[in-house]
Design a protein that fits this description.
The structure is a homodimer. By secondary structure, the first copy, chain A, is α+β, with helices and mostly antiparallel strands. Chain A has a single domain, classed as Roll (Pnp Oxidase, Chain A), CATH 2.30.110.10. Chain A contains seven helices and ten strands. In chain A, strands 1, 2, 3, 4, 5, 6, 7, 8 and 9 form a nine-stranded antiparallel sheet that branches. The first copy, chain A, is globular, with a radius of gyration of 21 Å. At the A-B interface, β2, β3, β6, β7 and α3 of A face β2, β3, β6, β7 and α3 of B. Chains A, B: This is Flavin-nucleotide-binding protein.
């Protein structure tokens, strides 16, 4: 069996602090992004007194060249937005060489799976999964790739949603939507699981052990019952939506609970 | 009654796209950050081929000068980390004028409150709350302020936790922990509530209305029952932890549900 495809370690993506929590496999990096309703995208607009900017956005992974590729394979990250928003203006300016060419971004997806309560503040932690991607941005201009990305993004939120809506987007919608393709140059995931990790110096102290409760508070993204709009006519809630809510909610909860009994890497 | 304190609008923090969702009040901006288990912090290390970097971190608001200040008042954002991590190395280099002096960051906290399913992909959205802060970083070197921040951060995760643990941090822990104080230079929140916002062109189409379910799938951060560590001796789970889990879980769920019936600003 072939080993998992991984992102090469470089000075850019290497997990330095608590490196034993690092994971460079495409599958691990991509799964966290695929399971996150929003990702955070950072870029330098070059016009804001040197502040970088972060935006919460929907980001979905896919390959226009190889549309059947799964999360274990090389993929691009697609972002979409209103054509005249700050990030899209920056991307268009970068395509013309200003302020940098090409435009570079860092994208981060994070899921918090639990609060880790230990004996002393410094050893407190969280169970979490995060993926950090460093990438190069290109404007998607071909209508075929744009439609591919629109479908990818919509179905990335709820599988099967795109074809159940009024499609394709009309001319005005195609014009007002800008799609960005982020080529992933470097990426890594960092994952903490397991129970608290306390220092020997505290584990030896009877007074501390007898005073302080230690353990994990599981946390997970939960989903409520779908609530219809005031103008909805379709009843009952379609099965693909009900299944999505049920399955995703259960998966999230189960992950948070099973993460506790997995090995933990590193103190705190 | 005095009106709420607000961050001044500037070209840096102004919500351009769907500006009617923008909120500049200290209370709104601060509440989203205070209620987020992690924030995303972006900075420019100046050494990574021009990529910005994003890190998920714990970030808590407080005022060392005015410790009784609440979320409606001016506050600083405190971050903590291992002394030799990339962000701390960058902060120390910046204090010496390299790569920029002072170090500037963008910090974003985001909560997803629901998936907004409408008639056509372009009008799909999410109910969400996000705060974006642009700030200037200073290293905290005074032990009193460092201890203030450590307590703020620990109690910001679970109120009352700090004094229930082995404190104060010892010499090695004080040495290995670097605290950053972010002065908030510009900030704004962006909030979407309400039901889907569909275009007139789709609301007029019987075929579309009869085919596509529209509504909201509520989403919220949920908490499971606290799970004790293998070496825990304190039984039962202390009341302040049980209360935190119960109250925070209920608040999160209630927000997501009530957000649906609030007015919605802007299409999509």
């Amino acid at each position: 069996m072939a080993s998992e495809l991984s992102y090469p370690k470089s000075k850019i993506n290497k997990v330095n602090r608590l490196g034993e929590r690092g994971n460079y496999e495409c599958k691990a990096v991509h799964e966290i992004i695929a399971g996150s309703p929003v990702v955070h995208v950072s870029f330098n607009p070059g016009s804001l007194e040197d502040y970088p900017v972060i935006l919460p956005m929907i980001g979905k992974l896919g390959s226009f060249e190889n549309p059947s590729a799964d999360l274990t394979e090389p993929l691009d990250l697609y972002l979409h937005g209103y054509v005249s928003s700050r990030i899209m203006n920056t991307a268009r300016k970068s395509a013309n060489g200003e302020p940098q060419q090409p435009m570079k971004v860092c994208v981060c997806a994070t899921k918090v799976d639990g609060l880790v309560l230990s004996l002393t503040p410094n050893s407190h932690s969280m169970n979490y999964r995060s993926s950090i991607v460093f990438g190069t941005v290109e404007l998607v201009t071909e209508p075929d790739e744009k439609l591919y990305a629109m479908k990818l993004i919509t179905n990335g939120v709820i599988p099967g949603r795109y074809d159940d809506t009024r499609v394709p987007p009309d001319g005005a919608e195609m014009q007002s939507t800008q799609i960005l393709r982020v080529t992933i140059d470097h990426a890594s995931a960092k994952i903490r699981t397991g129970e608290p990790g306390d220092y020997e110096k505290d584990l030896k102290r009877e007074d501390v052990l007898n005073k302080t409760w230690t353990g994990i508070i599981p946390m997970y993204q939960a989903y409520g019952e779908p609530q219809e709009s005031s103008y909805n006519r379709v009843k009952p809630v379609p099965e693909y939506i009900q299944n999505y809510v049920k399955e995703t909610g259960e998966t999230e909860k189960q992950y948070a609970l099973t993460a506790i009994s997995k090995p933990s890497a590193g103190k705190a």
